[in-house]
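Table S2 (continued). Query chain:
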Amino acid sequence: GLKVIKSFKFDDDGVSHAAVDLIATLMQPMHDNYNLRQEQLNKSSLLSTKAFLEKLVDLLKCHVLRGTGALVINALLDFFSYALCVPYSETTDSAHFDTLLEMLAGLGRCLFKLFLHPSLSINKGAGLLMKAIIEEGSSEIAFKMQELALAEGALLRHLRTGLVTPAND
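Corresponding output:
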């Protein structure tokens, strides 16, 4: 965790992307012979420090507000999805799950800005996180997200994207 945080201080998107991609790989191995117990231990280790999670959430917020670092944003969305979204969340400790969920819900309008991003991968990742926040969060968090969705015109944006984006069937 400390090495990852130190890598963010270089203020280099390539280094930040590589660091976040590394921890995302530890969260969800991308090979056939992984050990479920090892995945749980990795998740527990990575999600146990609130300060570390705050740095990751701050990095996401920083890049979203500046409109930079698409690869970093995408890697962070993957990392958060591996912790919060089905089926990956089944191996996430409930206390860590709740902490991270509340942190991401605290981003508010910043999350909705991701739906404006030209990358459909980022749109999809933001949608998965938003779904997890609404379905798994408290009723207050869900209500806040619904109010923000109305204020940001999220339905209209999704409708536009669905109608204008060419199908690759």
